[in-house]
Amino acid sequence: VQLQASGGGLVQTGGSLRLSCAASGLTFRGYTVGWFRQAPGKEREFVAASRWNGGALFYGDSVQGRFTISRDNAKDTVYLQMNSLKVEDTAVYYCAAGRTILSATRQTNGYTHWGQGTQVTVSS
Questions:
Q1: What is the DSSP letter of 26?
Q2: Per-residue pLDDT tens for 87-124?
Q3: Is pLDDT at 54 greater than 80 in this prediction?
Q4: Which of 19, 25, 43, 63 is 20 to 30 A (C-alpha) from 120?
């Protein structure tokens, strides 16, 4: 099983990026898929998730209203559209997948498969 995250880069404050996470060896249809991020010296933080059973969406408080998670089960790909980026959004972004119970949707231990991360840097 492999999750490949891509789309990171350098962007100015207020700009946008779209991250992608493609799966191989795993079908997203039966999995909750999430995005987390980790800034230097900080713990890994929940960003967004799409539940497997009907696709209910969850967002971290700091990204609510600016980021949008979506999924294309036919392509086994999940996206994270990031708008109105702020300097504090700078981090390595990871995608993750798991057969996650509802209460663990926002927790790293709710996911069994992780991508390698993609760097997002927002400059002022």
A1: S
A2: 999 999 999 999 989 999 999 999 999 999 999 999 99
A3: no
A4: 25
* Angle ∠(102,61,75) on CA atoms, nearest 5: 60
User: Amino acid identity of 24?
Assistant: S
Pairing state between β 118-123 and 9-12: parallel
Neighbours of 99 (CB within 10 A): 11
- CA dist., res. 19 & res. 8, Å (int): 6
Kindly give, in sequence order, each residue whose CB lies less than 8 Å from that of residue 111, ignoring residues fewer than 6 positions away. 32, 34, 96, 97, 98, 100
Given a cut of 70, is residue 26 above it in pLDDT?
A: yes
SS3 94: strand
- Residue 29 sits at φ, ψ, to 5 deg, of -55, -40
Burial class of 5 by CB neighbour count within 10 A (0 to 12, 13 to 18, 19+): buried
Q: Largest alpha-carbon pair distance within the chain?
A: 40
Q: Which residue has the tokens 């998730």?
A: 49
